[in-house]
Design a protein that fits this description.
The chain is α/β, with parallel strands linked by helices. It folds into 3 domains: 132 residues, Udp-n-acetylmuramoylalanyl-d-glutamate--2,6- Diaminopimelate Ligase, Chain: A, domain 1; 108 residues, NIF3 (NGG1p interacting factor 3)-like (Udp-n-acetylmuramoylalanyl-d-glutamate--2,6- Diaminopimelate Ligase, Chain: A, domain 1, 3-Layer(aba) Sandwich), CATH 3.40.1390.30; 99 residues, Alpha-Beta Plaits. The strands form 4 sheets. It has a 6-stranded mixed sheet with strand order 7-12-14-15-16-13. Strands 3-6-5-4-17 form a 5-stranded mixed sheet, with helices on both faces. Helix 2 links the parallel strand 4 and strand 5. Helix 5 crosses helix 12 and helix 6 runs antiparallel to helix 7. The protein is globular. It starts with 9 loop residues before the first strand and ends in an 11-residue tail after the last strand.
């Protein structure tokens, strides 16, 4: 894989190079690896984190045809929703598709990155892409279970509070919903005495000092704690920085499962089913459950989400769209909700466009010119007769 040399490099005039690791950081800031299922295999699967990215192809799956398309487009990074290497392979040969893909990727110097369940469970991810395709309004997570925040507390001389708060916020602390730089400060008196090996920022060594300090409190996601602590230490005037970390039981508003929202206008069931087929580009729907005549509130979960049907009922949804619904799931939904199996590929394909849009937005904001495109290859193994 090609590596950028040291110094200032350019993809095109006026645009700095992005490495695979830079793209990883952008995706992780949106869909943190920590929220993925424990047994999921996400992140860089094949390639070099330090490779300079020349172009990106986004796909739902990785197949030999997708790899060939990336090569034709001169894209040396594929961002795939489904991991190519989900389980450790026993062998890598050209006798199976995974082996053929790996060989093609290595021969063509193409890096492969997977964002799977972390993309499913984040705001703006897989299920939110369904909501956008259906033009749902007032969209919220269907089921929220993530408790990923901690509270960090430190004690800062009054005149340094703004600098410390800003440094911690820039590292990721203090984000609550659509607000950032959120904090709370309480004035108090701090005391300390340094020994002979100290150089106190306030007072003199060997002498007990008392000074007005602000107890500064901010929330922080658990994966951002190391960065925030580093920023705190660098911005704080004291040689020895006191801080506390507390676990929180708060449910995150940024991560969850599925979505629920409302249609712009209520629809009769038949019209709604036609609408879903058209917007998700489905060859055929499987449906069951409720015989409601009008659909107003809609819940959805991209991929295999039938276990969230009860949550959709509890949230008052008239219909629930997901995939891989079993026979007994339809029985369970009977009389409670219109349960729709729209296909695994069809309910997850919209997230490909969401990733393309997100990456283009991030690159534009950073002044970077880098080709990003969705694959033209249909990787759905299911066809409708």
């Amino acid at each position: 894989m090609s590596r950028p040399k040291s110094g200032t490099l350019f993809l095109s005039k006026g645009s700095p190079f992005m490495t695979v690791n830079d793209v990883h950081r952008l995706i992780s800031s949106w869909a943190p690896p920590d929220i993925a299922w424990e047994k999921d295999n996400i992140g860089l699967q094949i390639g070099d984190m330090n490779a300079a990215v020349k172009g990106i192809l986004v796909s739902l799956d990785v197949t030999p045809n997708v790899v060939a398309e990336a090569a034709r487009r001169k894209a040396n990074l594929i961002v795939s929703h489904h991991p190519l290497l989900f389980r450790p392979p026993r062998s890598i040969t050209t006798q199976d598709e995974v082996g053929r893909c790996i060989r093609a990727l290595v021969e063509r110097n193409i890096n492969l990155y997977a964002a799977h369940t972390n993309l499913d469970f984040t705001r703006g991810g897989t299920s939110f892409a369904i909501a956008e395709a259906l033009e749902l309004q007032n969209v919220e997570f269907l089921h929220t279970t993530y408790r990923v925040q901690k509270k960090i507390v430190t004690f800062v001389p009054e005149q340094h509070v703004d600098a410390v708060r800003n440094a911690m916020a820039m590292a990721g602390a203090g984000v609550i919903g659509n607000y950032d730089h959120c904090s709370f400060g309480t004035a108090g008196r701090g005391s300390f005495r340094g020994n002979e090996n100290t150089s106190p920022a306030i007072g003199a060594k060997g002498r007990l000092e008392n000074t007005t300090e602000i107890r500064l409190e901010m929330v922080v996601n658990q994966w951002d704690v190391p960065k925030v602590v580093t920023a705190l230490r660098e911005a704080h005037p004291y040689e020895e920085v006191a801080y506390d970390l507390y676990p929180l039981d708060n449910v995150s508003s940024e991560f969850g499962m599925g979505i629920v929202g409302t249609l712009k206008r209520p629809m009769r069931v038949r019209a709604f089913l036609e609408f879903v087929k058209k917007r998700l580009k489905v060859g055929g729907l499987r449906r069951g459950g409720s015989n409601n005549t009008m659909i107003r509130s809609v819940a959805a979960c991209g991929g295999s989400g039938a276990e969230l049907a009860d949550a959709a009922v509890a949230r008052g949804a008239d219909a629930f769209i997901t995939a891989d619904v079993k026979y007994h799931d339809f029985h369970h939904a009977h009389g409670n909700i219109l349960l729709i199996d729209a296909g695994h590929y069809e309910t997850e394909r919209p997230v490909v466009d969401a990733v393309v849009k997100r990456l283009k937005h991030e690159f534009h904001a950073k002044g970077i010119t880098l080709p990003v495109a969705a694959t033209h290859i249909t990787t759905n193994p299911v066809s409708y007769f």
